[in-house]
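Sharing a chain and its predicted structure for anyone who wants a worked example. Both blocks are below, sequence first, tokens second.
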Amino acid sequence: MRIFTGDGYNPLIHKTADLLARQIKLRAGVRPGILAQGRPRAGDITLAVQGELLSESFEIEIGPEPSARVVGGDPRGVLYGGGRLLRAARFEPGRIIFGPSEGPCVPDMALRGIYFATHFGNFYHHAPVPEVVRYVEELALWGVNFLVVWFDMHHFTGLDDPAARKHLERLRALQHAAHGVGMRFGLVTLANEAYSTSPVELRADPNTGRAHYHVELCPSKPAALERIVRDLRAEFEQFDPLDAIWIWPYDQGGCACEACRPWGANGFLRAARAVAAMFRGLGGGGKVFLSTWLFDFAKDEEWRGFYRELEKDHSWIDGVIADGPNAFPHWPLEHRLPGDLPLLNFAEISMHDMYPWGGCGINPRPRHWQEMWDLLRPHVRGGWPYSEGIYEDINKVIWAQLFWNGRRSVRDIMTEYAAWEFSPEQAGKIFSIMERMEITLTRFKLKVQGLEGASKIWEEICSIDASLPPWAKSAWRWRIVYLRALIDAELEKNRLKPTAAVKTALKEIARIYHARRAEEAVNPAAALKP
């Protein structure tokens, strides 16, 4: 088997060939050669761009030999078509059996992103960079095309802090990885973000009712606003030209002083306009998005004022990001954004119903996501799910594929995922287990609600485990399913008391997450604490 990249050299098409070869080697045991010239023969794969197709779209043509030809409207389309070619195929030792021809396949939504919360000592923060890079590449095969990360200032004394320089180096590596697979790359910043050394006299009033680092600045003080813009400009200049910035009102952040209240419709926009103007002035052509996270905590006061201000002038932003920790806010569903700005989703796929987040393994939520998508589909134009780690990998894929084809069901996407990552023969059974794992998800540490049936799930998981190919059986994606089932069965059997098996399982999960130095919220070991 060989993979042909066509005449000339395109780095993304060559990267696609490398990713396909890597996955084929894992599943079939042989790595195809990659060639730019020659004549394809039976079993070969050809990658090509065809200008008549739309951007990011693809077609898959299976020849009679059989051989496969993946044609994209651009190199990104070739990449996404290559991912689909693999997922539709079946693998045996030494050979690949292609699925049917497909296409043209055109994404519904142009923005299919992911946000990595690069803090708290989570996987993105502490895993070896090559592992995180590989993960970015694997998400690209599912159609993810926009990565956003955070340089959380408050940890550092300033840009010259050695720890800050080290973290910036890591984030630049993620930018390089994202661009290497055709993704755009952006940064999130709090509107009034600051370093730990911010002048006390310029600091914000922290009595916002939300979380606060107590070092943020008050943008109603001219010297503080000047400092916000100066520090963020220096941060942005550490990267290759950014494709976007998000300007964030809360989790941390905000100012409750008289001149800034209500924050979301006043001080927040004062700071955001200044930061946006500075970013535009850098000349990279990147987009500016405003977040409305936690506006709903103030009922409708911030939403109403926010809309009123955008109706006066929305020319300085490119879209609005909305979601909530428990449910999507009602206001943007009932009121179209001024100027028909795009409403973008920020699905909370990480924290809900499990603490530590992902601490017991996978957190599938098929019913919840289907209900949420049925509500949001007429309103949103893409988005970035919020990720604190790899334990919600299946949730990332659900959203990437819903943004690609909103007519698909969550069941269909999850079954495709299970067939690709685990076993085509067991995919239906695995989806059934995921449905039941959603019922038993809710937990605080090891205090779990509704564990009835956990022993039956564990029995089924053990049966599936015995049938999996070695590469799937040992992979972290399967291990976080297997270990979640083991933990739940042990807790059901022993009335929520952690057994030796539970403790061993939590240690393995922590190794998978690289969570040895993680903060409690993302550290599986915290599940054992009272």
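Comments welcome. The first strand starts at residue 2 and ends at 4.
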